[in-house]
Amino acid sequence: MPAVAxxxxxxxEVCLARQDQRPGPLPGxxxxxxxxxxxxxxxxxxxxxxxxxxxxxxxxxxxxxDQADQPD
Length: 72
Prior knowledge:
The protein has about 70 residues and is α+β, with helices and mostly antiparallel strands. The protein contains 2 helices and 2 strands; from the N terminus they run βααβ. It has one domain: Rossmann fold.
């Protein structure tokens, strides 16, 4: 069965706003559901370049879903 990559193309501002609402780490833990803002910014910036390589990773098809296609 061919593998399909689905990439949700969310604006950085939306990613950061959602990130701010995630809980931090529990006592004694390094990470919670929230990660540092620098991580979110870095991953968001690297996404366009990684899209070009998905076919070389074995995906038969790459589907991009943009903000207009996402539910509120």
